């Protein structure tokens, strides 16, 4: 499945979403940015990663390499001329495409946030001992058998890949920091949300970069 604004125009932006819990928190904001880009004459495409959103594939069977291959396949399918990644989505960007990385996140930091959420949730619910739900114990389980973190069943192959994952250093994508957008990141909120001013700012950076307005 893909959410697309496709007018057959010359600028065709592949959008790679944030991962895991942050994907849900930022979904509405991502669509708002795409809508603004559409009004500026820029096509955009937001595909579902295998195992995520509407995909019928199991998440625990996915790998970082598989997700990267899927991102490249989407770029080829839609004739992408540039790419925008959000947060840990930067780990999947086709290196040859020019574009932007919005507030990029490394794999280890993405995993740590999930493990901390899982540890806190389990302890508060009294479901496991402190030892069983410590970050080291969760990481060890993740590497061997995979692990369920904050509702996400991450297989061993994906877990191990994310543990070492950083954005490709030879990519052509510029970094957009949150300070460039203003305010605090929406991924920090407890619930999904949107911010029109931030959506305007992010879309403007991309539109100016592509067509000068």
Automatic annotation (TrEMBL):
<protein>
    <submittedName>
        <fullName>Uncharacterized protein</fullName>
    </submittedName>
</protein>
């Amino acid at each position: 499945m893909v959410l697309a604004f496709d007018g057959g125009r010359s600028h065709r932006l592949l959008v790679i979403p944030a991962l895991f819990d942050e994907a849900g928190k930022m979904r509405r904001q991502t669509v708002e940015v795409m809508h603004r880009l559409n009004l500026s004459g820029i096509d955009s495409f937001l595909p579902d990663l295998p195992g995520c959103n509407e995909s019928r594939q199991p998440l625990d069977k996915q790998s970082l390499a598989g997700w990267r291959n899927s991102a490249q396949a989407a770029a080829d399918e839609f004739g992408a001329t540039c790419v925008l990644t959000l947060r840990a989505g930067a780990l999947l960007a086709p290196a040859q495409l020019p574009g932007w990385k919005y507030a990029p996140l490394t794999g280890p930091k993405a995993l740590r946030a999930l493990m901390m959420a899982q540890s806190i949730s389990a302890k508060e619910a009294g479901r496991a001992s402190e030892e069983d739900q410590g970050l080291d114990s969760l990481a060890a389980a993740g590497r061997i058998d995979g692990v369920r973190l904050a509702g996400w069943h991450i297989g061993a192959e994906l877990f191990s890949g994310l543990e070492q994952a950083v954005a490709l250093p030879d990519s052509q994508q510029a970094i957009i920091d949150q300070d460039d957008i203003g305010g605090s990141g929406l991924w920090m909120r407890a619930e999904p949300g949107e911010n029109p001013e931030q959506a305007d700012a992010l879309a403007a950076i991309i539109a100016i970069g592509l067509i000068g307005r």
